[in-house]
Amino acid sequence: MKKFIYLLSALVAVAACTVEKTDYKTETNTVAPEAKQFKEIFSSENETYILRVEALEGQLYQGYNEVRVQLLDVHNKQAIENAKVSLLPVHLSETGEETSCPHSTEWIYEPQNKYYTGYIVFTQIGEKGAWVLVVAIEDIAVQFQKMEPIEVKPQPNMNLSMTSFIGKDQEEYIIALVAPMQPKVAENELVAGIFKRNKSIGMDTEALHQAYEPVENYTLLLDPRMPEPSMGNHSSPNNRDLVQRKDGLYQGVVNYTMTGNWTLNLILQNNQGRILKGTKVPTDFTPGVAGVKSELYLDILF
Predict the structure, then answer these.
(1) Of 75, 104, 181, 201, which residue is least crowded by CB atoms under 10 Å?
(2) In 3D, which of 8, 187, 150, 185 has the Cα closest to residue 65?
(3) Based on the domain organization, do 122 and 182 belong to the same domain?
(4) Could you tell me which of 40, 133, 141, 134 has the C-alpha nearest to residue 82?
(5) Cα dist. 248→80, 119, 191, 216 in Å?
(6) Residue closest to 251 by CA, chosen among 178, 149, 200, 167
(7) 128 and 170 co-located in one domain
(8) Do 139 and 255 share a domain, yes or no?
């Protein structure tokens, strides 16, 4: 597919645990709403295609977003299965700088559901600039391109937090939680995306597609604790560090023994075992004293 460059210049926390008893059920329903259905973000139609782009509840948020694309033949309304689908998120700053964020470079068709699926990890909301989504479709000899302004909202669910940082190797990293969206008092599968910024690329469209890449064979060490003074640095058993699985995401286990404020204390190791960010935290039980956090952590509330 030919390279294409778009000029976008025309587009321009949470309640914490306290010593007093907290109504976590009410608080959680406010802070961590459960998104159940994929709904349309936008759609488009031309003489060849009907295009629909969907996300959970039809909203895009800062952090990890699963995104689906439906592509139909405009004449018979049948799903098109073998197209090359590309979604490029582009942020235009107030000074005109174009940047991107971690996103799928290959969108996979799921024949049982008749849609293409991928992800986008939005690194910021659109307050200081604007986001657009550049959609490109290649199907045999037909090519289709569309640029759509989109709104990226603050993440209301602290169980889907993200963080960005500079590692000891002077590389820029992003960690974004993927699951669980609604934790339980139990052992929960903990899933995260870990991405590194590619500093060596240029600024054309193809380069923006490669702005970030998933890291390979890293390890994310996990030590979950309840840092509030009333909880005394309480932890839990049977947690497992996050390691990479076949789809590129990282998976481990976090055992939440009660509802409330938790901190996921993290240590990121590269594929040679070098610590890039994070520190061990004290294991002492300290009632009345706030727990010490790792220099790399994500706060959780459920």
Answers:
(1) 75
(2) 150
(3) no
(4) 141
(5) 26, 12, 11, 8
(6) 178
(7) no
(8) no
Q: Which two tokens stand for residue 2?
A: 């030919």
Tell me how far apart the alpha carbons of residues 31 and 15 are, in angstroms, rounded to a whole number: 9
Whats the size of the chain, residue-wise? 302
159 DSSP assignment? G
* Structure tokens belonging to residue 158: 């602290």
Residues 49 and 131 in one domain: yes
- Provide the residue range defining the domain that includes 75: 34-153
Q: pLDDT of the chain along its 302 residues, tens only?
A: 333 333 333 333 222 333 343 444 444 444 555 657 999 999 999 888 899 999 999 999 999 999 999 999 999 999 999 999 999 999 998 888 899 999 999 999 999 999 999 999 999 997 778 999 999 998 876 678 899 999 999 999 999 999 999 999 999 999 999 999 999 999 999 999 999 999 866 556 678 989 999 999 999 999 999 999 999 888 999 999 999 999 999 999 999 999 999 999 999 999 999 999 999 999 888 889 999 999 999 999 98
Residue 40 to residue 146: CA distance in whole angstroms: 16
Let me know if residue 229 belongs to a domain: yes
Residue type, 20: E
Task: Give backbone dihedrals phi and psi of 158, rounded to 5 degrees, phi first.
Answer: -70, -15
| DSSP calls for 3-38 | ------TT---PPPP-SS---HHHHHHHHSPPP--E
Closest listed residue to residue 71, CA positions, set 88, 49, 43 = 49
The two tokens of residue 102 are: 């971690």
Show the tokens assigned to 256. 């939440």
Domain count along the chain: 2
| Contact yes or no for 174/123 (Cβ under 8 A) | yes
Task: Compute the 3-state secondary structure of the chain and give helix, strand, coil in percent, each to the nearest 5.
Answer: 5, 45, 50
Amino acid at 273: G
